[in-house]
Amino acid sequence: MEMDFNLYMNEVVDTARQEIENAGYQQLKTSDEVKEAFSKPGTTFVMVNSVCGCAGGIARPAAAHALHYDKLPDQLVTVFAGQDKEATATARDYFEGYPPSSPSFALLKDGKIISMIERHEIEGHDPMSVITNIQALFEEYGEER
Fold it and tell me: 0.70 cut: is pTM over it?
């Protein structure tokens, strides 16, 4: 049996994109889209998506379920590490003081990094603990919705 790796990976990536978009996050696929989104005033919550198992089993479900909360950031966006490389690199330029990490979450206010939930705080943790960490950021910096 022969399997087309690229076709398989495209399905995995498409599923990962749809999952986070269906949760309410806007995909940023270019450097210009990142700059435009990050230049908006207010709070921006960024999910750095990935095809790794901890993204699919922990980070994306946590990103979706964390939105069931009274306070939320002004905008929810996502970049896809390893796929939309230019957009991800531009986003990481804003994450000053933090090494590249995927999956991960970043909270920005007026384009400046406030806090980050890095891969080591996701991988090996249960989704509920990640949701709790995300919602703690929403509580401190989000607005009632």
Answer: yes
